[in-house]
Structures are given as C-alpha cells and as structure tokens.
Amino acid sequence: MEHIDHILVVDDDHGIRTGVVDYLRKNGLRATAAAEGREMFAQLEASAFDLVVLDIMMPGEDGLALCRTLRAGKHKAIPVLLLTARDDETDRIIGLEMGADDYLTKPFSPRELLARIKAVIRRTRMLPPNLRITEATEMLAFGKWRLDTTARHLLDEEGTVISLSGAEYRLLRVFLDHPQRVLTRDQLLNLTQGRDAELFDRSIDLQVSRLRQRLQDDAKDQSYIKTVRSEGYVFSMPVTVAEGGA
After folding, report:
1. Predicted local confidence at residue 87, as pLDDT
2. Are strands 145-148 and 139-142 parallel, antiparallel or unpaired?
3. Distance separating alpha carbons of residues 185 and 112, to the nearest angstrom
4. Is 63 exposed, middle or buried (0-12, 13-18, 19+ CB in 10 A)?
5. Torsions phi, psi of 194, nearest 5?
6. Cα(16)–Cα(181) distance, rounded to whole angstroms?
7. pTM for the whole thing?
8. What is the pLDDT of residues 233-245, one digit of tens each?
9. Would you say residue 73 has pLDDT above 70?
10. If you write DSSP's letter for every residue of the chain in order, what string do you get?
C-alpha cells in the first residue's frame, strides 16, 4: 500500500489551520490540525506523522519552545516547518537553531507551503548513502571526540557528554559525512536547512563558530573545521566508525 504523508498543522488561528489542512488534503496528503501544544503532543501520541507545521506566535507555550521540546523528546526525528508572522531574521535563526528544518513567513501562499513541505520530507528521506550506514553504527569518532548519533550528543576523551542543539547536530553530521571536502555556505545551508544562501550566510558562519566552540577548535589553529577563503569550510579531521558503537 502506498504511503501517504501525514502532516500535523499546529496553529492557534482557526482559519489558518483549517485552511491549510483542507488545502493539503485536496493535494493528496493526510493532514490533522492542533490548536496548541498539548493538543499537538496528544496527536503525536495517537498517530504517526511525517512533518509538523508549527506556528511560532501562539499563546502559552510558543512555537519555538514547542520545537525545542520536540527535539529533546522521542519525536525528535520528525521534521518541523515553522510559520512566523514576523519578518525578523533573529526569530528565524533562533527557530533553525532550536532544530526546525525550514520556516515560512506569514502571509504565505498554500502552494508555497506545500512545496516547502514536500522539499523538507524529500530532503529528510534522501540521506547520503554513508549517512544511512553510520546511523546504524551509532558512534562516529574524530580527533578526541565521538558523536553518539542516537542520543545526538558529543563525548570527549573522558566520556563526558556535551549536549548539542538541533542546528549544531545537523551541521556536525553534514561535516562528518563529507570530511576533507570543501563545502560552500550555500551547500551547507542546503544540506542542513534545505535553502539557498541569500540572507542566511551569516547564520551559517554563526553556527560554524558555535560548533567550533563545542569542539574546542581554536579559531587560529582550526584543527577540525578550517575556513577556505572565498569558498567555504572543510572538515579536515578523518572520521571513523567507533568499534562496537563505544
């Protein structure tokens, strides 16, 4: 039986959520609505979903907080597309750092939303071959670090756990799956967020800087992530699969 993608639409605006649900259903998707966080989690427990469309501006627990909670729990693998009424770059960057996979600013056309949903789902499923293999291995080793791909955190030489945000984890995974290869900002944005560079050049630079801090990578020596002038970044450390996942 052919799989039909199931989308959860979370928005406190009745008109928007019902309109989006109706449009998605008319275009061949399954769609379910939720008005706020508690209803969202109840739906997630009741059914399997392929993507969550989540409004940022909601009363009570807002979409950014809900996204963070999603990424920290058992539903962390479900892609999230944020809706925001504010054309604010800071909001968008925070949303992506919370672990969102894409965003769309209100007002939006249902057709564009549908295209974004399909792109995020397609990108989520079209993992590089080596990414599929390493997910099963659970642990990747590089330099003095190991990355637990199940728990999504770093381990240092003593086994101390270093937590990563959703954005940090995705960026590190892209580097680990393309070691010793120069990646442009546009490629990094495409691989981590599914969008072209444009306004978000600075967000990638910021995320690389934060990831370097996590890896204790000196900005001058750059043992792990090297800046390639006028081109982008390269992860220079060899990456191996840790024996027995430990």
Report:
1. 64
2. antiparallel
3. 24
4. buried
5. 75, 30
6. 43
7. 0.60
8. 999 999 888 764 4
9. yes
10. -----EEEEE-S-HHHHHHHHHHHHHTT-EEEEESSHHHHHHHHHHS--SEEEEES--SSS-HHHHHHHHHHSTTTTS-EEEEESS--HHHHHHHHHTT-SEEEESS--HHHHHHHHHHHHHHHH---HHHHHHHHH-EEEETTEEEETTTTEEE-TT--EEE--HHHHHHHHHHHHSTTSEE-HHHHHHHHHSS-SGGGHHHHHHHHHHHHHHTT--TTT-SSEEEETTTEEEE-S--EEPGGG-
| Structure-token pair, residue 187 | 């490629």
What would the two tokens of residue 118 be?
């399909």
Of the candidates 31, 41, 23, the one whose C-alpha atom is nearest the C-alpha of residue 4 is 31
Instruction: Give the separation between CA 99 and CA 81, rounded to whole angstroms.
Output: 10
Name residue 198's amino acid. E
Cis peptide before 238 (omega within 30 of 0): no
Per-residue pLDDT, averaged over 59-74, amounts to 85
Contacts 24+ apart (CB under 8 A), 170-174: 171/204, 171/207, 171/208, 171/211, 172/147, 172/211, 173/131, 173/147, 173/149
Identity at 5, one-letter amino acid code: D
pLDDT for 110: 94
Rg (CA), the chain: 19
